[in-house]
Amino acid sequence: MNPAATPQGVVAGSIPLFAGHPSLDLLPVDALQRVIAAAWQDSSVARFLNYGDEQGNPRLIDFLVERLNRRENLAISRENLMIIGGSTGGVGMIAQRLTTPGDAILVDAPSYRDALHIFRDHGLEMRSAPIDDDGIIVAELERNLRELAANGKTPRFYYVVPNFQNPSGIVMAVERRRAVIELSREYGFAIVEDDVYSDLRFKGDPLPSFYELAGGENVLRLGTFSKTLAPGLRIGWLIASAERITGFVESGLLRMGGGANPFSAAVVADYCRSGAWEAHIHWLRGQYRRRRDIALAALESCMPAGVEWTRPAGGYFIWLRLPPSAHVDALETRAKERGLYFASGKGIL
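Request: output the structure for the sequence above.
Response:
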């Protein structure tokens, strides 16, 4: 391996507090190695090294459909789900298929910076509304919608990370999810639900998803194995109406390239169907809860007066709010000089 290679966006030798990357000791290397070795010995391995089914590995699709229906009130079928190249691939695919340059979309402030980067790449007009501890402030979202309507515009979709949001760690309240769904019906925009952290809940019961609350109507829901298995596998899934799934599957990109990562998808299917994924998720929750507690204790011990922060009940992220007297640019410069990188809030608000 090239010793100079570093993970996405990370400076070699630095402490990257901005990155939602799993620690290497949390990756199930030995278990995956066994699954890969078994797949490699399978007489049919060659078909997984070829172009794949455009919709994705059928065994993985069936596993996910059964799991989602068992855990949630979704009533989806295999026609409602496709395998994608991680949630990032899904965000890019949705932006490509549902928008044209100059279209308006709705986002939270703050929101996931890499998704916003994709939307900028597509030339989209992003209209943001602030969030608080219960998620998006609905009155501000509605204000954006009225302003767009006054200019003859309808946003193409609202992009949201509803559970343990990147970067704030907050969970959107059910009442606000329902209110957003009502606005989507009134104004005619879709909801893109990037639900990548819901399996990393430390306590309590999961809240119903946008997809469940809307009965699947005009909601596209993304999931991924990047946060609960291994991001390098580049495997995720998209849930949507059968019509939308068909449209994505019949796109030129998939017709030309085949389904997402056929070999990785076959390995993930075998790993999941063995029961190993559920056991690993259970273990991960304990690991991340412990690390969250250490981080919160350090903040309590070290932060000066006037600094506030979220106390997430799951996921990867804690969001700090500095007092008005703090100069974030100067702080960011000093931190980088010591090899510490954090998300300053630029480009995500």
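The longest helix spans residues 276-302.
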